[in-house]
């Protein structure tokens, strides 16, 4: 959604407006992520982006639409990074699960990290009708399915339960980072996920 | 903080103002939990509570102060429920860990459930100076320590790592409920926690 909109704007009247839309988008994405969506108003976004309010509304019908566009971009980035990572990882489900967890764990050590943009926005917008919620729900369903597609290749009795357990550990690492920071329980992400996979494999082996 | 303030108000000019402060507090707590803290303004709280704005400010110096009071009450309630639950549970660390996870899992099946008030507010207010953050950080440190005090009684090599893994699973169940609801990965809370404890015990047994 974001890219399409930015392209449309660019086509309408060339470079200048495209740059304004891009500046709005990048500024909003940064502010929403670091301070929260509701904490940041449209006035602050246009002021910080150095554009006029009509420029924002030419590119995005509403703040909610801008929020959804930012989330789509986050989803696209994570999907691209994970696709590339898995393409570079040996074709082994266990190693690929580890690679996914290590990828997220590495992000959490960045001083800039403030949880998952999707999960944060889901907390701020409980209403089912918000345009961002569709993006969030598809992205998280994709994560769940990506983990499930790997656990289903493991010698375990209930791969979907294991995948859901891994979702809990991953979401928990993102959520607890808001409270304890990177040195808290989040630091146990990879180890905990690994231990859970072990438990499922061991349980299937002995039964 | 909440109760002390409500009592002070009651002492100042008797029942009427105490009731107004209580109504503000209960209304705010309910609105903050269901809709989010930033989504709810002081005007909406006083309108819904049927009191005047000065009544709110006589009881709470600011909205932030009211938020902190609501969080303190949530922390107090959870602490009280868990203390009572553990007093009624057989003195066995494994059973007590299960009881804690079952307690949270049961809460998650309520149609009224919208995650953890503490964790939600931590997402909305990243700034370290917010009066609510102290309450959140102490409450979560207490949860971590409560789990640690039980894992340290288990035959495991690294009880603190296990406790942190359980924090991740618990926080993940609360967080993923915002996206998938009660039938999503959150439904695996008790089973995942149990499997992780098994893994740690098994790993210490064979090593």
Describe this structure as you would to a colleague.
Two copies of one chain form a homodimer. With 207 residues, chain A is mostly helical. Chain A folds into two domains: 1-60, Arc Repressor Mutant, subunit A (Orthogonal Bundle), CATH 1.10.10; 75-206, Tetracycline Repressor, domain 2, CATH 1.10.357. Helices cover 76% and strands 0% of the residues of chain A. Chain A is built from ten helices and no strands. Chain A has helices at residues 2-13, 15-35, 42-49, 53-59, 63-87, 93-108, 117-124, 131-151, 159-180, 189-206. In chain A, helix 2 (15-35) crosses helix 3. The longest helix of chain A is centred in the middle third of the chain and has 25 residues, at 63-87. Chain A is elongated and about 65 Å long. The relative contact order of chain A is 0.10. Residues 1-14 of chain A have low confidence and may be disordered. The interface between A and B is large, with 50 and 50 residues.
Give a short summary of the structure.
Two copies of one chain form a homodimer. By secondary structure, chain A is mainly alpha-helical. The first copy, chain A, has helices at residues 2-13, 15-35, 42-49, 53-59, 63-87, 93-108, 117-124, 131-151, 159-180, 189-206.
